[in-house]
Specification:
The protein has 189 residues and is an alpha/beta fold. It has one domain: Rossmann fold (3-Layer(aba) Sandwich). The chain has six helices and five strands, in the order βαβααβαβαβα. Strands 2-1-3-4-5 form a five-stranded parallel β-sheet, sandwiched between helices. It is globular, with a radius of gyration of 16 Å. The mean pLDDT is 97.
Length: 189
Amino acid sequence: MKALAISGSPRKEGNTWQLLHLALEVLAGEGFETEFISLHDKQVHPCLACGACMQNKNQCAQEDDLQAILPRMHGADALLVGSPVYFGSATPNLMALLDRAGYIARYGDNYFYRKVGAPIVVARRAGVNFTYAQLLFFYSIMGMVVPGSTYWPIAYGLKPGDVQQDAEGLDTIKTLAGNIAWVTKKLRA
């Protein structure tokens, strides 16, 4: 089984990176092959609403880094996405990825259907609940399975490394990853 984590943070190794890697460590310990993608150095343009994905199954007319990321998303059994809160919501580059991947999948073979995963959110102070809910919409509309944890999978920190001081947030992420592993194994049995 394979787990993929995608970071929407513009910081290469910031707090979002740390939380996603923590989740991947737990999943690796559960026997998953893990992969991490950071969007910090990728070009993923917003959807143009051109309708090409309706005509060309499983394809987008735009040429950017999404074409290399989609097969990796397709091949994963478990999908995590992470975002810091930017002005009360997820980062635009992560939303561009999810919007386009979602349209391509909905008009194609919906390779997200019944995959397992969850969003992870980090903020300096506020916006985590809205951002978490915003990202959950993608999982819900794609027919994915989202396990719970002991709390919402959120943590707090501003500067890279600050999130390591949020013990409850770290424990919540570990529990979430353990639940993702458990559910994925049950569904794949």
